[in-house]
């Protein structure tokens, strides 16, 4: 890297003797911009990847020198037709600098310097055109500007492709983080909340009922094993061949039944009912099945956290005309009792995130008091998702 930078400095410094050598052939007004543009372009190439600021300054110097020469020729001579072969090296240098600036410089310097380089390259032909009418002059400048457009596109394309790649990688990482966050909230938090509830029950039963305490500890062990299994499944999501959306726990009727059974085992003093249409659940798309499972998990988790006094919990998953799947998780407690985790701020982020996902699928989610004085989490989903977003 250091050797390339040093070589670039040497090549850039060679513009002085090169200009001196070209002066007899081109005259000083053409020799200087040709030497400057050619040597700076070659220096930028041999020292690549040069710092973005260096590339921008090199492009600026090449463009300003070329425009100054063009302005002097037009002001003093009006036009100067003559030999263009060696002077064409200036155009090549300007185009190389334009492409490198568009590729490497920072955004705003890239726009400004590329524009100035494009103007300098297009105006170069005016030094060699004989006096002509305005239309001919504009046509000549336009034709030469096409080279600048090609150089700008060639330099900008890798830059834009790299930016799109960074955005894609960032979006993929964000998507994976969201999948992991959803899985942790829906499954691990569900099981850990059950463990906390059982631990609290065991604490109260410890002194008076050793048998009840043993039962509670067994439930904690079972729930802990389920949490570890869920964690293993979440870790499996990080494998390259894993499906991050459906790798945690089976959805559908069996998955719902297992979730409700786990909740029932943790809460033997509650009446927990599941009413679900197994045939309909089996025909749902994977997105709707997963969303329905998440709604049930969220509802049961909130019962643990906010309705510890509930004695009746009912989970209903059934179709409804015209083309809806209704999901209700209802309990007979208003949910205003002592929270399960009094030192933990809720924030309701899980419900809000789930509601957004349901809306993306074309559904609706709300939590509200029911007609019996309890609380219900109500969700409506289309039987076929219109947007898997």
TrEMBL record:
CDD domains membership: HATPase_UhpB-NarQ-NarX-like (cd16917)
EC identifiers of the protein: 2.7.13.3
EC top class, as a word: transferase
Pfam family for this entry, one: HisKA_3
Molecular function terms, GO-annotated: ATP binding; phosphorelay sensor kinase activity; protein dimerization activity
Signal peptide: none
GO cellular component: membrane
The reaction(s) this protein catalyses: ATP + protein L-histidine = ADP + protein N-phospho-L-histidine
Spans traversing the lipid bilayer: 31-48, 55-78, 84-101, 108-126, 138-157
Taxonomy, superkingdom: Bacteria
Protein name listed in UniProt: histidine kinase
Species per Swiss-Prot/TrEMBL record: Kribbella voronezhensis
């Amino acid at each position: 890297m250091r050797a390339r930078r040093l070589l670039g400095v040497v090549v850039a410094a060679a513009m002085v003797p090169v200009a001196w050598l070209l002066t007899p052939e081109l005259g000083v007004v053409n020799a200087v911009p040709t030497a400057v543009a050619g040597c700076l372009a070659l220096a930028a190439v041999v020292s690549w990847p040069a710092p973005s600021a260096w590339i921008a300054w090199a492009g600026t110097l090449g463009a300003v020198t070329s425009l100054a020469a063009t302005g002097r020729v037009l002001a003093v001579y009006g036009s100067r037709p003559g030999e263009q072969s060696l002077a064409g090296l200036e155009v090549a240098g300007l185009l190389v600098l334009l492409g490198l600036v568009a590729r490497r410089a920072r955004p705003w310097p890239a726009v400004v310097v590329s524009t100035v380089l494009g103007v300098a390259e297009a105006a170069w032909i005016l030094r060699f055109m004989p006096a002509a009418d305005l239309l001919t002059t504009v046509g000549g400048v336009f034709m030469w500007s096409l080279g600048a457009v090609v150089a700008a596109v060639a330099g900008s394309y890798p830059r834009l492709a790299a930016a799109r790649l960074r955005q894609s990688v960032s979006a993929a990482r964000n998507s994976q983080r969201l999948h992991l966050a959803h899985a942790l909230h829906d499954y691990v938090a569900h099981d850990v909340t059950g463990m906390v509830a059982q631990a609290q029950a065991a604490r109260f039963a410890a002194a008076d009922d050793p048998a009840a305490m043993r039962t509670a500890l067994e439930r904690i062990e079972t729930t802990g094993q389920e949490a570890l299994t869920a964690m293993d499944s979440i870790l499996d999501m990080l494998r390259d061949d894993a499906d991050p959306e459906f790798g945690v726990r089976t959805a559908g009727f069996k998955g719902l039944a297992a979730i409700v059974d786990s909740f029932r085992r943790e809460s033997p003093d509650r009446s927990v009912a599941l009413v679900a249409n197994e045939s309909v659940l089996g025909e749902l798309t994977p997105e709707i099945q997963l969303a329905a499972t998440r709604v049930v998990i969220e509802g049961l988790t909130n019962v643990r956290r906010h309705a510890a006094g509930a004695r009746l919990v009912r989970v209903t998953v059934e179709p409804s005309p015209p083309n809806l799947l209704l999901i209700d998780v209802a309990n007979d407690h208003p949910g205003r009792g002592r929270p399960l985790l009094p030192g933990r701020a809720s924030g309701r982020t899980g419900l809000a995130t789930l509601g957004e996902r349901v809306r993306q699928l074309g559904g609706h989610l709300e939590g509200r008091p029911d007609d019996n004085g309890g609380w219900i989490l109500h969700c409506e989903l289309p039987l076929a998702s219109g947007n898997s977003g």
